[in-house]
Amino acid sequence: MDVQTEKLNLKREVGLVGAVSLIAGTMIGSGIFMSPQTVLSSIGSPGASLLVWACCGALVILASFCYAELGTVIRESGGEYIYILRTAGPVVAFMLIFSSVLFVRPAGVAGISLSFAQYVVAPFYPDCAAPALLVKCVAAVSIVVLAAVNCLNVRFAMSIQVFFMVVKVLALAVIIVGGLVMLVRGHTENFQDSFENTNLAISPIGIAFYQGLWSYDGWNNLNYVTEELKRPEVNLPRAVVIAISLVTGLYLLVNVSYLTVMTPMELMSSNAVAVTWGNKVLGSWGWIMSVAAALSAFGSLNGTFFSGGRVCFVAAREGHMPAILAMAHIHRLTPSPALIFTTIVSLLVLIPGDFQSIVNYFSFTAWFFYGITLSGLLYLKIKKPELHRPYKVPIILPILVLIVAVFLVLAPIIDNPQIEYLYVTLFIASGAIAYVPFIHYQLCPGLLTKLTVFLQLFLEVAPAEKNL
Fold it and tell me: Is 361:424 a contact under the CB 8 Å cutoff?
């Protein structure tokens, strides 16, 4: 009997509005409500902290332009993974996916869920820190809920993303307007001698940038879902410009508002800066800011899930992860096995993790691979100028961003070396060691085949083809 199988593809359901929402909605999340105090305490002065936020925005815009060219030349989902695979080869690409799937992406999910949970429980503990176990339980529930949403329907997940982006922009608008009103009333004392006590050591500058760039994380999310984007050669560059310009402007104005309402010491000592701001400006209505910050983090977590599952999915399709992770649900057309796997690893990372450590090690690892990705763009520009490029940037842009990426990776190590960064580096390098037995020599194929067949029947999934 001939059995004809229909090829499965992830549908192109992400238009320009959805693309802007995916980038901006993921970027505007926990960071702008959790990182300002650490940026300020690291760099030492209000003026320098604003400069750090502006430089982070400029860096992300330049990097995203480079990624827009990569996304229109290599029109496959997967972001850094697929770009490194096509330029630097399978070993380096496996090192990325090994680090990304087992740490970077789950760390991002865990960090955002922790900040969401802190804002959810903050109103119930106004005078003290909330119990760590309660915070982690709420964070775990948020991860499981959004995993279910993303497994069920792509269109519903994108609708959630658009809705929460509107909510979080309105929340930031309230903070901005409140700050401007206070400025007009003459509250400018916190900006006098605004660069006094600036810390110019290399390590604090690097840590300040790590915390600031965490708030901008998500700028490259659209490159993970290129195959689900309508007209990527047009919508990818447009969405990048619109979303990141919007977010950078909002972040600067929000930080000005924070510094207008709170003294630097109040800002640095706050556990939930938006709640502190709300209590000082809105009085008894201050709890609204806690709700807004929680919703903002929830929307960001949804975007991180949406893109993060696709990285795992693409790597499995290329043979660098178990085959089951490259499959999509036969009815819903969502990469549910990859999303379930990401959920499990994220919950494991959540158990021992704390927010600040997750952010620092996440940023260190992420910018290491961003640097390799940008090196790949330089390689394509120099060695393969004949490739069709619907969108193109001057070669100076990837060179500048690459220099900054090298600084961000080396700064914390050179000035104030900590053993934890060595552990992270060894973890990244261990990916090359794992590549030999598990990918090159394909150990335990029989066991994996049986497990794949069982999970394929249990989860109702089938292999999905590339959507080019």
Answer: yes
- What pLDDT was estimated at residue 445? 62
Q: Give percent of the chain above pLDDT 90.
A: 22
> 140: closest CA among 100, 95, 181, 109?
109
CA 70 to chain centre: 18
Which of the 8 DSSP states describes residue 101?
A: I
CA–CA separation, 370 and 368 (whole Å): 6
Per-residue exposure over 389-406, b if at least 16 CB sit within 10 Å of its own CB, e if not = bbbebeeebbebbbebbe
Q: On the CB side of 432, how many CA atoms lie within 13 Å of its CA?
A: 6
**Neighbour count for residue 156 (Cβ, 10 Å):** 13
- Per-residue confidence band for 1, with pLDDT thresholds at 50, 70 and 90: very low
Q: Do 412 and 213 contact (CB within 8 A), yes or no?
A: no
The answer to whether the beta carbons of residues 334 and 76 sit under 8 Å apart is no
Rounded CA-CA distance 318/329 in Å is 19
CA distances, 261 to each of 178, 182, 184, 283, 411 (Å)? 9, 7, 12, 13, 32
What distance in Å separates the CA atoms of residue 43 and residue 220, rounded to the nearest whole number? 26
Per-residue pLDDT tens for 314-343? 888 888 888 888 888 888 778 888 889 889
Give the whole-angstrom CA distance, residue 243 versus residue 214.
16
φ and ψ at 329, to 5 degrees? -65, 135
Environment class of 144 (CB within 10 Å of its CB; exposed 0-12, middle 13-18, buried 19+)? middle
User: Which has more pLDDT, 373 or 356?
Assistant: 373
Size of the chain in residues: 468
- Say if residues 285 and 167 touch (Cβ distance below 8 Å): no
Q: What is the DSSP string of 39-97?
A: HHHHH-SHHHHHHHHHHHHHHHHHHHHHHHHHHHHS--S-THHHHHHHHT-HHHHHHHH
Distance between CA atoms of residues 212 and 58, nearest Å:
12
Cβ atoms < 10 Å from Cβ of 126: 11
Angle at Cα 402 formed by Cα 397 and Cα 408, nearest 5°? 130
- DSSP code string of 167-201: HHHHHHHHHHHHHHHHHHTT--GGGTTTTTT----
DSSP code per residue over 223-247: GGGGGGBSSHHHHHHHHHHHHHHHH
| Rounded Cα gap, residues 445 and 14, in angstroms | 36
What is the token pair recorded at 144?
């499981």
Residue by residue, what is the 3-state secondary structure of 417-441?
Answer: CCHHHHHHHHHHHHHHHHHHHHHHC
CA of 257: how far to CAs of 118, 165, 188, 345, 440, in Å? 22, 20, 11, 37, 54
